[in-house]
Amino acid sequence: MELHLFDKQVYADRRQVLKQNIGHDGIILLMGNEDSSMNYKDNTYLFRQDSSFLYYFGLDTHGLAAIIDTDTGEEVIFGNELTIDDIVWTGTLPTISEMASMVGVGETKPYDQVIHFIHKAITSGRPVHILPPYRPENKIKLAAWLNTSLADLAKYVSVKLIKAVVGQRVIKTSLEVAELEKAVNVSVDMELAVIKHTRAGIKEYELVAKAHEVAIANNARLGYPAIITTYGQTLHTHYYGNTLQEGRMVLSDIGAENAMHYGGDLTRTFPVGKSFTSRQKELYNVVLDSMDHAISMLKPGVRYKEIHLAACQKLVEGLTDAGIMKGDAADAVEAGAHTMFFQCGLGHMLGMDTHDMEDLGEQYVGYTDALKKETSIFGLKSLRLGRELEAGFVLTVEPGIYIIPELIDRWQAENKYADFINYDVLNTYRDFGGIRIEDNFLITDTGSKLLGKYLPKTLEEIEGLKG
Amino acid sequence: MELHLFDKQVYADRRQVLKQNIGHDGIILLMGNEDSSMNYKDNTYLFRQDSSFLYYFGLDTHGLAAIIDTDTGEEVIFGNELTIDDIVWTGTLPTISEMASMVGVGETKPYDQVIHFIHKAITSGRPVHILPPYRPENKIKLAAWLNTSLADLAKYVSVKLIKAVVGQRVIKTSLEVAELEKAVNVSVDMELAVIKHTRAGIKEYELVAKAHEVAIANNARLGYPAIITTYGQTLHTHYYGNTLQEGRMVLSDIGAENAMHYGGDLTRTFPVGKSFTSRQKELYNVVLDSMDHAISMLKPGVRYKEIHLAACQKLVEGLTDAGIMKGDAADAVEAGAHTMFFQCGLGHMLGMDTHDMEDLGEQYVGYTDALKKETSIFGLKSLRLGRELEAGFVLTVEPGIYIIPELIDRWQAENKYADFINYDVLNTYRDFGGIRIEDNFLITDTGSKLLGKYLPKTLEEIEGLKG
């Protein structure tokens, strides 16, 4: 089988930078992932390697771990060679040392030797830097290796290592941007297939089938569970059993993750039938205006939180024109009234992970020591990216309007935001659903660049696809 | 959203039988599954509920557990109600108590109350029966609840509960057979789509894409990772990057798991081009003869191990006719020489799990106290089913011939089975690949019944599909 890798020097260079950033300060332990079981141990989900492991060590197979000794410079990959049973059941692979040499690592050891390296470091009083584990099997292993309890494991997570890894991964190189463009291009083809297949009478899962078909036929997978729904107000619904009805819209939020594990993340909202209704058109253009305004603000030095708030204000202005909101738009956003319609954030970092590096902590990825992430304000607590943009960031822009009946009922009962929301009018939209439009951008020295092929997004262009 | 359930009485009856079989003997704890993370906590694989939980409690949502008190008859489902954040992000669901009542359970509690029920039982000296956990997050929870270490958890697994659960689940009711037939029918459509799409020059993953498309468009999923390969000798390969070449075959082992989580498990082997070569035809018919012979033996009272060995002998006879093997066929099977070509078992139980109940232990599912599973004999150690067949069993029949160059090299170097294998001839088949043919059967009172629609399996029928 074929391993998908950059040149070995890419990985060696990345590790060199990491070592420089950590300084002479003990050992770095990076955990690869295991296979995850579905309904019994050997029936496993499609393997997904840890992204930081991929970034520094590239190898996309289960059962690996790696150590970088920042004092000696030593780099070791730990893994077990295949047995004849493995070969009979799952085929041949290069040996561990052959694979290691493909990513510029000269030293390999059996997997169970990791613990000796860790104990040696601990015994000699040297730090062991780990990233926050998100898989339970890695938590179990780390707790055993570090001789601590699962409950205390969080204390061993190295903020220094998190910051060093984020600092590198957050700036995408041209090699990475090329992979991201490939992934976005497949994502565009997935969206086109879904839009063209949409018609009244079929089930949402028939559209999900198209998305998977296009992704897999391009040697990719879905980077995150498809959101393809006629109830677009549910931000992350993964239920696909509804029948499409003329007059309603479909929201399709899908992205391909390619063989190198870089991903796209696109959303389009389109009519089940050939054309949008006038109400749909009106609110669609509110979202589109908000999006275009946000895109126009993308450039280094601007805080994404500012762009988010500006996009929110555009949404409020449009909703006010539509008679659903009222009062001063800036005041409404200040008060948080827009969160009746836009409960989440404008976008997030994108890379190997759809929410790039979310496992390392949104505070470290999307914010800075000077700009803390809100943790309790509805709306802002879901803004994953707030910090000043820098050239090399890759991110999503994805405003939306979501009409959530349960939220209307709760907040109307509390008379919440009554100065800004025309509840009488809003209640006539209860069954509207939701609209989101999302594209992916690279921050350049002077502004931004749309990643991948252009995917139709105006009303006319979308209706044209359905003609 | 819609929950896929049998009538509530079905679940109540199943639990009643379980209680009777356990007697007054403490509490039974059944763990539901959690979402499994891919590359960060909130990016999850498609949820798969535990099959025994589905069998007794039906509910196909994450974050549930259930207790059956065999002394008092009390049944409790533990789970947490949705918050408004859950509703905004993932939509509405019935409440826990609404869901519980759909499966005939009157009592529900918040999830963190499980531990109190367990501690109460332990304190009063009553047993807590658990099944073997296969998911690491459930291991972590169970160890905490039972106040033991992960290493000692296995001691708490209840063989009595395993045997009671297997005893019920192994006999499929007509309701279950109907679901299995639906799943097999979708699996047949998947195979037909894959076969018809196969042509020289495309990649294996383009066929995988078709399998997923058909499954998902039928509100199903793949019950296990697709094996679609032009290197069919690798029994469970999940690499799909090879280009299909005229003259080679494709082995496609795929199965749909439907909305009720019953699954099919089919395999066909077919030419990349329009027709098989004469060598392929010869060995294909060896496998088909072995399969037909095995099917003719399916009936209550016959040990599946006997059928396996009879099928092996048929394979050896055919391989002898082809000049690849030699000597007495029965002696060859007795010696194990057939395992050069057929390294695995003839089949396995099929139900909600592809290898049904494999999490409960193959010894308990496929064998009996009187008939122990072999653990070290190559070939037999991979025979998942050996016991006497009973009416109501559902199983696969899947003989094959697999030409594994690495195995030839190892065994020829050892002169292994030299009395039975013509290594000179065999080496001319090194690049042959593998052939497997697999269908699913219900054991009836008098014999067996093919599950689902007939999927072409003779040479002529297969070539007819490619015409």
From TrEMBL, chains A, B:
Report whether Signal shows up as a keyword of the record: no
Q: Superkingdom of the source?
A: Bacteria
Keyword match Manganese: yes
Q: Which GO terms describe its cellular component?
A: cytosol
Query: What is the catalytic activity of this protein?
Result: Release of any N-terminal amino acid, including proline, that is linked to proline, even from a dipeptide or tripeptide
Stored InterPro entries: Aminopep_P_N (IPR007865), Creatin/AminoP/Spt16_N (IPR029149), Creatinase/aminopeptidase-like (IPR036005), Pept_M24 (IPR000994), X-Pro_dipept-like (IPR052433)
| Cofactor(s), names only, from the UniProt record | Mn(2+)
Class of the enzyme per the UniProt entry, highest EC level:
hydrolase
**Which protein family is named in the record?**
Belongs to the peptidase M24B family.
Q: What is its EC number?
A: 3.4.11.9
Question: What are this entry's molecular-function GO terms?
Answer: manganese ion binding; metalloaminopeptidase activity
Q: Which Pfam families match?
A: AMP_N (PF05195), Peptidase_M24 (PF00557)
Record's protein name: Xaa-Pro aminopeptidase
> What range(s) does the Aminopeptidase P N-terminal domain occupy?
6-139
One Gene Ontology BP term is:
proteolysis
Ordered alphabetically, the record's keywords are: Aminopeptidase, Hydrolase, Manganese, Metal-binding, Protease
